[in-house]
Design a protein that fits this description.
Layout lengths: L16 H9 L7 E8 L5 H18 L5 E9 L3 E4 L6 H9 L10 H14 L4 E6 L6 H13 L4 E6 L3 H14 L2 E5 L4 H23 L4 H9 L5
Parallel strand pairs: 1-2, 1-4, 4-5, 5-6
Antiparallel strand pairs: 2-3
Helix pairs in contact: 1-2, 1-3, 2-3, 2-7, 4-5, 5-6, 7-8
C-alpha cells in the first residue's frame, strides 16, 4: 500500500492551511478519538475532494476541546490504486497530504476500503469510519458482510452519499445500517452541508452519542436518529 503524496495544495485548499496550522499548534494530549476517512477518488470526485480538503481543519477544530482526534485518510482511484496515511493528529499535515491527491478514473473499491477499516480497528479500535462516494460498482453481498463485521467490532460506518443515483444510495444505506452507523445523503454544491456532516461525525468519534446529543443542527439529529440503541 502506497503513501499519500505530501506536496502542498494550491488554490482554495491553500487558504485553509493557515487555519490547519493554528489547530495543530495547540498543545494537546494523545487524541481521544480515532476516525478513518475513506474517500472515493475516482474521476467524478474531484470537486468534492477539494471541498472536503478545505473543511478538514475545521473538523479537527471541532474536537480540539473534547480530547482531540486522530484521523487516517484512505482513498481508492485509477487502476486498483489504494493508499492511506498513518493516523494523524496534525491538521496541517493531513490537509497537505490530501491536497496533493488528484482524482483519476477507475472503478470503485469499496470492499477493499472497508476491509482496510476492519484491519485497522482490529489492531486498535477505530471509533468511526466515514465513507464518501457517489457510486457502487461492485457486488454488494461481500461488502455487506464486511460492514457487519465492522459493526461487531464497534466501528460504525457513516456513509455519505453524493448525488441521487438510487442503487448506489441504497447500497450505502445498507452499509451504514449493518455497521451500526448512519446514511447521510448530500449535494456536492453545498459545502455547508458537508461541513456539518464532517463536524458531527468527528464529534461522535471523540465523544460518542453524548457529543452528538450536545451538538445542535440537523446533521447531528439525523445521525442520532439512525444509530442503534437508546437515543
Amino acid at each position: 500500500m502506497s503513501k499519500l503524496p505530501t506536496k502542498p495544495g494550491t488554490g482554495a485548499v491553500a487558504a485553509f492551511l493557515e487555519q490547519a496550522r493554528a489547530v495543530a499548534a495547540r498543545p494537546a494530549a494523545a487524541p481521544r478519538g480515532r476516525l478513518l476517512f475513506l474517500m472515493d477518488a475516482t474521476a467524478s470526485r474531484q470537486p468534492t475532494w477539494d471541498t472536503a480538503c478545505s473543511l478538514m481543519a475545521g473538523m479537527f477544530a471541532a474536537t480540539a476541546e473534547l480530547g482531540g482526534l486522530a484521523v487516517q485518510l484512505a482513498y481508492f482511484r485509477g487502476h486498483l490504486e489504494f493508499a492511506a496515511t498513518p493516523f494523524l493528529a496534525d491538521a496541517a499535515e493531513l490537509t497537505r497530504r490530501m491536497a496533493g491527491v488528484r482524482c483519476l478514473g477507475g472503478q470503485t473499491q469499496i470492499l477493499r476500503a472497508l476491509s482496510h477499516a476492519l484491519d485497522e480497528t482490529r489492531r486498535q479500535r477505530v471509533h468511526a469510519t466515514v465513507l464518501v462516494g457517489d457510486a457502487m460498482e461492485e457486488a454488494l453481498d461481500p461488502i455487506c458482510h464486511i460492514a457487519g463485521q465492522l459493526g461487531i467490532a464497534g466501528t460504525p460506518v457513516f456513509a455519505f452519499h453524493e448525488g441521487g443515483e438510487r442503487a448506489s444510495a441504497e447500497a450505502f444505506r445498507q452499509i451504514a445500517k449493518l455497521s451500526g452507523g448512519a446514511f447521510m445523503p448530500f449535494d456536492s454544491a453545498s459545502a455547508e452541508a458537508l461541513r456539518d456532516l464532517l463536524r458531527a461525525v468527528a464529534i461522535f468519534a471523540a465523544r460518542g452519542r453524548e457529543g452528538l446529543r450536545a451538538l445542535p443542527g440537523g446533521a447531528a439529529r439525523g445521525m442520532l436518529a439512525q444509530l442503534p440503541g437508546p437515543r
